[in-house]
Amino acid sequence: MTGLRVTLDGWDEPNVFEAYGVCETPDGQPIYWNGWATPLFTREQAQVIADAVSRDPDVHTMQYDADADAWVYLVTEESRSPEDGLDEFTPLTTRTTDDSQPLYPIGAFCWSWQVAR
Questions:
Q1: What is the mean pLDDT of residues 38-56?
Q2: Percent of the chain at pLDDT above 90?
Q3: Where are the domains of the chain?
Q4: Cβ(65)–Cβ(90) under 8 Å?
Q5: 3-class secondary-structure state, position 102
Q6: Average per-residue pLDDT for the chain
């Protein structure tokens, strides 16, 4: 799947992002988390999200850790403790793009993603 557009609920910034697809069950059914989408992104698509998230580094940042092959999201607001505001998104081991690129579930099962209309 390609060409899926997703948006983050409640985020004031322009926030429509291209996703490769969504997390699926073994028989290909989309998985939702509390009604929210669970998008998958290529490394290039994830970089666009990281750039948008990191626009205000006093609040939160996201960057790629090549050693861990993970996208690391950190809430930097003083009101949160570091362990409460750290997420790592590693690639799925069960699914890749058609040309074997890894897919990262950025914010899947923890952020409020919606399919953009």
A1: 91
A2: 46
A3: 4-115
A4: no
A5: strand
A6: 85
